[in-house]
Design a protein that fits this description.
alpha/beta; 14 helices; 41% helix; 13% strand; binds S-adenosylmethionine; binds 6-(5-methyl-2-OXO-imidazolidin-4-yl)-hexanoic acid; binds iron/sulfur cluster
Length: 361
């Protein structure tokens, strides 16, 4: 019996169905196995009910299932490492309730104009020398202006010259802008849907959920890899989490990279007082993302500084295989590199030398 066949009793139809099964039904491995096998290929027709059923599985069953999907589609014990740099910080006109960079909230962030190209190149080189394979440049813009794109193009070229994969997160893009970035050699564009379409307007009022989807479409059309995920722990329901993952999994092409951020509750933002998420619910979200998007890299993103080593190990077991590496995210902290290296070593994990999805300029 293969490891997948061991799932004979956890076919779609779910935990409740599995628990209510008679012995004869459970013994019907032929049919069950067939359903389970079908379930492990990439699908774009996930129903909300199916996803909620996954969330409702006993924790161990969910993790076992996620680990099997992981073993089938991903390199085991391997982590891809991206380093972030905020190339333009603060004074963002948007009102994202989680974000310390919005001009509307008093978070003590100093506004900084767009960095010099040489300084960015230097930071990228340091990240590469420390072991990162991808360099991700973030800017606190609603959307970039023409002159911003010109500078970003130069930065992307520098990163590519260093032999690193390039990623940028600059806000909403037009089709033309996406094309220009792609032509400069941009491998990935990060643009998160952040939460479910239903919860979206509780978090952001200055743009619509559809605006995010439009940018994602422009990025795809330009031929770039998509990095798209969201945040958990903002007060959303379990159904919202399921819906967010449903939208991601059912995109015409699943994102190559799926960052799952745990809210960093920054003082001064409207979500500053948000109660922390149950860590097991965080791990469940990673596991469901892994099952739904078996071929994507699932990134254990913001919030790692607040997580124990044991929780991170559990998240890796649930299918996370990418991290942000380096002492800072954009404006908030991240574990120091020595700690991360030691953690990976303690877990017998190795670093990926570049994701297979990277594009050639
Ligand atoms: N301005 C661009 C945009 O919104 O797409 C790019 C930068 S923005 C900071 C990138 C992503 O970081 C957000 O979409 C959100 O998912 C994540 N993020 C921002 N602040 C966060 C926080 N306090 N906790 C967790 N994730 C956060
Ligand atoms: C993503 O999903 N998370 C990163 C990256 N994409 C750009 C950003 C996390 C930001 C956390 C808050 C901060 O440091 O400002
Ligand atoms: Fe601006 Fe992006 Fe922060 Fe929203 S998440 S306030 S768009 S920097």
């Amino acid at each position: 019996m293969t490891v997948l066949e061991a799932f004979g009793n956890i076919a779609p139809g779910g935990a409740k169905a599995a628990r209510g099964r008679t012995e004869t039904q459970s013994a019907n491995l032929g049919t069950e196995t067939e359903i389970t096998m079908k379930d492990t290929v990439t699908r774009h027709d996930w129903t909300l009910e199916e996803i909620e059923t996954l969330f409702a599985l006993p924790f161990q069953d969910l993790l076992f299932r996620a680990q099997c999907a992981h073993r089938e589609h991903q390199a085991a014990n391997t982590v891809q490492m991206s380093t972030l740099l905020s190339v333009k910080t603060g004074a963002c006109p948007e009102d994202c309730a989680y974000c310390p960079q919005s001009i509307r909230y008093d978070t003590g962030i100093e506004r900084e104009s767009l960095m010099a190209i040489n300084d960015v190149a230097e930071r990228a080189r340091a990240a590469r020398d420390a072991g990162a394979t991808r360099f991700c440049m973030g800017a606190a813009w609603r959307s970039p202006k023409k002159k911003d794109i010109e500078v970003m193009v130069a930065m992307i070229r520098e990163v590519r010259t260093l032999g690193m994969e390039s990623c940028a997160t600059l806000g909403m893009l037009t089709r033309e802008q996406a094309k220009e970035l792609r032509e400069a050699g941009l491998d990935y564009y990060n643009h998160n849907i952040d939460t479910s379409p239903e919860f979206y307007d509780k978090i952001i009022s200055t743009r619509e959920f559809q605006d995010r989807l439009d940018t994602l479409e422009a990025v795809r059309e330009a031929g770039m890899n998509v990095c798209c995920g969201g945040i958990v722990g903002m007060g959303e329901t379990l159904r919202d989490r399921a819906r967010m993952l449903q939208v991601l999994a059912n995109l015409p092409q699943q994102p190559e990279s799926v960052p799952i951020n745990q809210l960093v509750a920054v003082p001064g933002t409207p979500l500053a007082g948000q109660a922390p998420l149950d860590p097991f619910d965080f791990v469940r979200t990673i596991a469901v993302a892994r099952i739904l998007m078996p071929k994507s890299a699932v990134r254990l993103s913001a919030g790692r500084e607040q997580m124990s080593d044991e929780l991170q190990a559990l998240a890796f077991f649930a299918g996370a295989n990418s991290i942000f590496y380096g002492e800072k995210l954009l404006t908030t902290g991240n574990p120091d590199v020595e700690h991360d290296r030691r953690l990976l070593e303690r877990l017998g994990m190795r670093t990926a030398s570049g994701a297979p999805g990277a594009l050639l300029a």
